[in-house]
Amino acid sequence: MATTIHPTAVVEPGAQLGVDCEIMAYAVVTRHCVLGDRVVVHPFAVIGGDPQYLKFDRGSETGVRVGAGTVLREHVTINRSIHPGQATV
Fold first, then answer.
1. How far is CA 16 from its chain centroid?
2. Cα(57)–Cα(39) distance, integer angstroms
3. Taking the CB of residue 8, how many other CB atoms lie within 10 A of it?
4. b or e along 30-60 (b: 16 or more beta carbons within 10 Å of the residue's beta carbon)?
5. pTM value?
6. Are strands 16-17 and 40-41 parallel, antiparallel or unpaired?
7. What does the radius of gyration of the chain's CA atoms come to, in whole angstroms?
8. CA 76, CA 59: separation in Å to the nearest integer?
9. For residues 65 and 89, what is the distance between their CA atoms, to the nearest angstrom?
10. Measured by CB atoms within 10 angstroms of the end CB, which terminus of the chain is less buried, N or C?
11. Ordered per-residue pLDDT tens for the chain, 89 residues
């Protein structure tokens, strides 16, 4: 199996996808993400967006790391870390 990205999904340039990932319809994976092998992102999930922290610096180098074999279900949101140089894992 190869990595598949649904035509309606958004995977930003710079996002790192592992082997055999599946990005389903209308999912969003930002450039701040590293997805391990065999990660499945279900419809309407948003991975790597800005956190809902009012003092967050959008220029901060933070991200999201998702481990191999993880399944992220419909409408899930995983925001990037609020701490510079770190990732939500």
1. 9
2. 28
3. 11
4. bebbbbbebbbbbebbbbbbebeeeebeeeb
5. 0.94
6. unpaired
7. 12
8. 24
9. 5
10. N
11. 799 999 999 999 999 999 999 999 999 999 999 999 999 999 999 999 999 999 999 999 999 999 999 999 999 999 999 999 999 99
- Give the span between the Cα atoms of 37 and 87, in whole angstroms: 18
How far apart CA 1 and CA 3 sit, in angstroms, is 7
Residue 11, number of CB atoms within 10 A of its CB:
21
Both tokens assigned to 78 = 């995983």
Q: Whats the size of the chain, residue-wise?
A: 89
Q: Which helix (H) or strand (E) holds 31?
A: none
Query: Could you tell me where the DSSP H helices lie in 17-78?
Result: none
* Single-letter amino acid, residue 65: R
- Joined together, the tokens standing for residue 39 give 């990660």
Helix, strand, coil % over all residues of the chain, rounded to 5: 0, 35, 65
